[in-house]
Amino acid sequence: MRLLSVLLFIPFFGLSQINPSFLVKSNLSYTKVESSGDGMFGFEKDGKIGYLDKKGNVVIPAIYVYESSTSKTIPPFQKGMVKLKKDNKYGVLDKTGKIIIPFQYDGLYTSNGKYIPVYNTINGKNTWGIVSMQNKVLIPIVYEQLQIDSNLIGVKQNGKWGMKDVSGKDILPMEFESLTPYAQNQVILAQKGSQYGYIDAKGKWLFEKVKSVYTLSGCYEGMIMCTVNGKHGYLDMKGNEVIITKYDNAFSFGKSGLAKVGKKSSTSGSPTLWGYVDKKGNEVIPVKYPSLGDFYSGLIYAKDDETNRYGFLDKTGKWILSPAYLDLLSFDEYGGVWVKQTDAKWHYLNKAGKDYGSLDDNGTLYKYFGNQGYAVVENNTNTYLLLDNSGAVIKKIDDCDAVYNFSQGIGGYKCKSNGKYGFIDVNGNKVTGCDFDGFDGFTEAGISKVTKKVDGKNKHGYVDAKGDIILPIVYDYVYDFRDGWGLIYKEGKYYFVDRNGNLKDPPAKYDELTEFRSGYALGKIKGTNNNPNKYVYINSDLKEEFSITSWQAYPIWETVAIVSSDNKTYELMDKKGKIFKRLTGIEQVNFCTEGMIGIREKGKWGYVNDKGDVIVSPKYDTCTGFKYGYGRVKSAGKWGIVDRSGTEIFTTKYENILPGENGYFIYYDNGWGMMDKTGKVIIQPAMATITTFEKNRAMARTGKTYAIIKSPLAK
């Protein structure tokens, strides 16, 4: 049994310092936080998803589930609504969490904002329809497919397409092989038998094309994309070729009145060169740029073929921000842009080139502000800290990849540089370098067992609190050092060892021998012919002080030892070998400390004191040893704390909770935090790891947290 309790450590990423001019809310401690549109932020907690507002306040609790076990994307808000899943059905909530479409559909979409396309699955097939924002059926849920653009809704049934408006009124009969609506121009790409082209919303053919020659695409800003022989061009609304098909790539026209086009290059280092054309086919931005963005805030980024750097052009092709940047993003809708300058840092600029600085102190972070000017930053560096009991940071622990509890004022740490272990004191001073392959932690004697690999095998020895080797690290096994003595096992024989490294023989030969505890080591001589064992208690002078014959006997813990003379009933024995109490009805005991012993009765655990008096009646699923005056108890998978009087000072509601010195407790709630014995939270549960407090110090690793940031240009 070990005195040192070692916390499991969890991989994490710590957050570098965020520029205050961008920061809205930091230290959001969730499994995940995502920018979810409409000024909302989805978060995950305990495997469920909910939503925060722009200030980081929970507005929709985490009670909803992901769409599938493989899909871990939090659904985004669109037009003030979000599609969520509950009880294997989908519904729609608004930004306050109000259910506006009940959870009764097998699938739905929220992109329109005025009505909701929904479907139910019947006999393995989806049947589609449209409901209003009040869940009134507008178009019956009977169709095989829908093609939707605003007020034009294509419906498919029995392999044929027709068209309806949002009220469900028929616009076109169910007689088309395909229909794709484009509501901005109130036209529809249609195929009916051999007829192929565009029709208006009344079904009148605007023009037809030969399908084997033309591939027609979307209609935007009065221009229709088309492809002939693998080349791209544009038609007008009458089907005339306004821009002949000569481009290898082409995109739709935007509100700028321009369309992005590309041609393959045989001379440039880039496989495609890009430019922009107007509706007459004029290349207002020449097709010469190896990289070219889309228009945002009236500007596009371009990579200059001379400097091989990036800058920004206006719609006439004029450089507004000269090509001086190593990398960049597109302008956001607030007129801000991230650029990587020659200092190798990302800076946020406005259209005039004013520099608002970097997002973090290293200049390595950047985020596109597309969510009403907001974004989310996830932490991305490792930080290990020494804390005091107010939560203040005393020191950063450098070259550290794991931390372990303090014991006797010395804690363990693992070096990132070599993967080995060393020791650190409560002031953050490293007592040793990372020289060891393992350790057990310091006992009250101020000595720790340490391990090194020698020729591929683990060898063990002792080190003191100054880092000095007491016992050479050459032994196959060593036990904890207490009461002036350590214990080693060498070549099939036990030896005691003192603080000077001198080996001493035990007073007799034993089949088993345990290390010293509470002034005594315990030797066992196995009984023969189905007889009880002989247990010998050895004092710190290495003399046999007394012995007992029993089926089971355990080391002395403080003032008492547990024995079982009949292998059925547990008994309490004092340090003179006298049995003074029988624990009737007890199924099992758990050796505890500080005068408290864990007992199991009828499958439940409680405590008796070292006199055998019941302090906590057995009612818990498990319990652990007392430390710093408190014991941990568990019910229904959750942990709580009891004190020495048996009072439950923290109910069993925590994922984990451990006592520290002076009434400080670390606890886990989607991250580790610390509180005092009144329940006052001192360190928010945002740490990936935190050790129990000793001498008002703890070591911690900052946990996975998120920050909400905002563009300085967004109002």
What name does the CATH topology of the domain at 384-706 carry? Methylamine Dehydrogenase, Chain H
CATH architecture label of the domain at 384-706:
7 Propeller
What is the count of β-strands?
A: 71
- Poorly predicted parts: 1-15
CATH class group of the domain at 384-706: Mainly Beta
Structural class: mainly beta
Largest sheet: number of strands, sense, barrel closure: 7 strands, antiparallel
Q: Report mean pLDDT, rounded to a whole number.
A: 93
Radius of gyration: 37 Å
Q: What overall geometry do the principal axes of the alpha carbons give?
A: elongated
Helix content: under 10%
Quick rundown:
With 715 residues, the protein is mostly beta strands. The model is unreliable at 1-15 (pLDDT under 50).
Architecture overview:
This protein has 715 residues and is mostly beta strands. Helices cover 0% and strands 53% of the residues. β26 and β27 (259-264) form a beta hairpin. The chain starts with 22 loop residues before the first strand and ends in a 5-residue tail after the last strand. Mean pLDDT is 93; it is low at 1-15.
Task: Describe the secondary structure blueprint for this structure.
Elements: E1 23-28, E2 32-35, E3 41-45, E4 48-52, E5 58-64, E6 77-78, E7 81-86, E8 89-94, E9 99-105, E10 107-108, E11 115-122, E12 125-132, E13 137-143, E14 145-149, E15 152-157, E16 160-164, E17 170-176, E18 178-182, E19 187-192, E20 195-200, E21 205-208, E22 214-220, E23 223-228, E24 231-235, E25 241-247, E26 249-250, E27 259-264, E28 272-277, E29 285-289, E30 300-303, E31 310-313, E32 319-325, E33 327-328, E34 336-340, E35 346-350, E36 374-378, E37 384-388, E38 393-396, E39 402-407, E40 410-414, E41 421-425, E42 438-442, E43 447-454, E44 457-464, E45 469-475, E46 477-478, E47 486-490, E48 493-497, E49 503-504, E50 512-517, E51 520-525, E52 533-538, E53 544-550, E54 552-553, E55 561-564, E56 570-573, E57 579-583, E58 588-590, E59 596-601, E60 604-609, E61 614-620, E62 622-623, E63 630-635, E64 638-643, E65 648-654, E66 656-659, E67 664-668, E68 672-676, E69 681-690, E70 697-702, E71 706-710
Antiparallel strand pairs: 1-71, 2-3, 3-4, 4-5, 6-7, 7-8, 8-9, 10-11, 11-12, 12-13, 14-15, 15-16, 16-17, 18-19, 19-20, 20-21, 22-23, 23-24, 24-25, 26-27, 27-28, 28-29, 30-31, 31-32, 33-34, 34-35, 36-71, 37-38, 37-70, 39-40, 40-41, 42-43, 43-44, 44-45, 46-47, 47-48, 48-49, 50-51, 51-52, 52-53, ...
